[in-house]
Specification:
Largest sheet: 6 strands, mixed
Number of helices: 15
Radius of gyration: 28 Å
Strand order of the largest sheet: 15-14-18-19-21-20
Length: about 475
């Protein structure tokens, strides 16, 4: 263990020893190292830490539970096994959700103390071997036997969003400026750079990018890391949240041409990502009066909105997955972990619900994301200007994905593309108080008046699908206007 870590854990042990008694999130043991017992305490302390709004709980060996004196322990977690399996792996394997527990061995007064750091439960109660436990005073009990505690525990998961939880703690002001690009905050906010570090820390605390700890040092929140990290790789639990951009040759994923991972915080590299994607977006070449003109196949503002949406709507609690943009010859996809929080068919008229409200609010403040509810409208505006299909949104239990398609002409569109575009265009016009007639939709699809029968057919298919309806059932054919099914 490096000196800084040793000093931190020695200080932690001293602070814990000064507590008058064991707490719901703290338990002392001498040499009781029964694996089943340890697993049950992991569940109980993790759940109790959540109830007490503690980032972590602790199980300590080598501290007398009566006098709190350092008694020392023979426990060696690195050598301990359960059957043929290493103890730590066995404990993690039977925990649900799997926790990032950590055993630390510390020398205190020439005696060994072992600390087990246990993260608080965050999305659901922590179970061990299929059973959930809780601490009642200094006693370990089954959670199901205390329904009022169980209700309070579930409610606690709603009070501290993941973005506001601690990413790293016990860091100095100097270490904060090494890990976060604090100066960029002032550039983005168009504020003068403070003349001293203390003033900078004040602003960082005010934005909740950092918090001051009881010992005078600081903790950096997940939001602070995700927005301003100089290198996300330095935060093991958040490095998979870096934005990935992959370009493929053709229409499938078997032939990747290049992949780029952007390891800086979202606020720092958003525009850089947009510029990079712009260089990969396929372009259409057109010869007009002897001059070659290059046209983007996808509108810049639509791609920008896709990028912003997948960042702010991702489920940060899902491990091993992050936001990703994929670029094909005639398609762009943006995907993020976490299901869509609104009905796919109400994406335009319903204000989106962001999982990460504080982060989304800051990104809107610096004009990276649009005001609430206007993002998808802007995507549709961009697609409409190029006469290509409206964005397609897909969602499942653990993902959300937006797709943009490009076709050379309307004959290449699928029937699904036509119906979706007719419906979403009607939604867009309706919320913007524009009356939707055949002529309006002809403009959206880029169809000349002489071919209005094509639009009439698309309208009929969309009506038959139940997505739009006549505003007035008794209107004459030339006066027919259409509205969304929910209007």
């Amino acid at each position: 263990m490096i000196t800084g870590q040793q000093d931190y854990y020695v200080s932690l042990i001293e602070r814990l020893r000064r507590l008058p008694a064991e707490t719901e999130w703290l338990e002392y043991k001498s040499n009781n190292t029964d694996p089943q017992m340890i697993g049950e305490y992991i569940s109980a302390i993790s759940n109790s830490a959540a109830l007490e709004r503690r980032e972590k709980g602790y199980l300590l060996w080598g501290i007398d539970d009566t006098t709190h004196e350092v008694s020392g322990t023979d426990f060696c977690p690195r050598a301990a096994k359960k059957g043929n399996q290493e103890l730590e792996n066995w404990l993690v394997g039977l925990s649900n959700p799997r926790l990032n527990i950590q055993f630390i061995e510390v020398d205190v007064k020439d005696k060994k103390v072992v600390i087990l750091e246990i993260p608080m439960a965050s999305v659901k109660p922590t179970a061990f071997a299929g059973e959930e436990y809780i601490r009642i005073g200094s006693y370990k009990k089954k959670l199901k036997d205390f329904p009022e505690k169980e209700r309070a525990l579930w409610q606690s998961f709603e009070t501290t969003p993941y973005e506001m939880r601690t990413a790293i703690e016990n860091v100095t002001e100097e270490e904060i400026t090494q890990l976060l690009d604090c100066a960029a905050y002032y550039t983005l906010m168009k504020l003068p750079l403070p003349s001293n570090r203390s003033s900078m820390m004040y602003n960082m605390k005010d934005e909740e990018f950092i918090r001051e700890m009881d010992n005078g040092q600081y903790a950096i929140t997940n939001m602070g890391v995700l927005l301003f990290a100089k290198d996300l790789n330095k935060f093991s639990h958040l490095k998979r949240k870096a934005v990935r951009v992959i370009q493929y040759k053709g229409t499938g994923r078997t032939n990747a041409i290049r992949e780029q991972v952007f390891l800086r915080g979202y606020a720092l590299c958003f525009d850089e990502i947009c510029r990079y994607i712009d260089t990969l977006i396929p372009q259409e070449e057109e010869i007009h009066i002897g001059l070659r003109q290059i046209h983007r196949m996808f509108p810049e503002k639509a791609v920008r909105e896709m990028l912003g949406n997948m960042i702010i709507h991702q489920d940060l609690t899902m491990r091993g997955a992050g936001p990703m943009m994929e670029i094909f010859d005639a398609r762009v996809e943006a995907s993020n972990p976490g299901c869509l929080l609104v009905d796919v068919n109400r994406i335009i008229d319903t204000a989106p619900h962001s999982r990460n409200e504080a982060m989304a609010s800051f990104l809107r403040m610096i004009h990276i994301c649009e005001e609430r509810g206007s993002g998808f409208d802007r995507m549709e505006e961009g697609m409409s200007a190029l006469k290509i299909p409206a964005p397609k949104v897909e969602t499942g239990d653990d993902f959300a994905r937006t797709k943009l398609y490009w076709y050379e002409n309307l004959n290449e569109w699928t029937k699904e593309d036509k119906i979706r575009t007719c419906y979403l265009a009607t939604c867009y016009y309706y919320v913007n108080e524009i009356s939707v007639a055949n002529a309006v939709l002809r403009e959206r699809f880029g169809v000349e008046a002489k071919n209005k029968a094509i639009i009439s057919r698309i309208i009929k298919d969309t009506v038959d699908s139940g997505l739009i309806k006549l505003a007035d059932e008794n209107a004459a054919p030339k006066l027919r206007r259409y509205i969304p099914y929910w209007a």
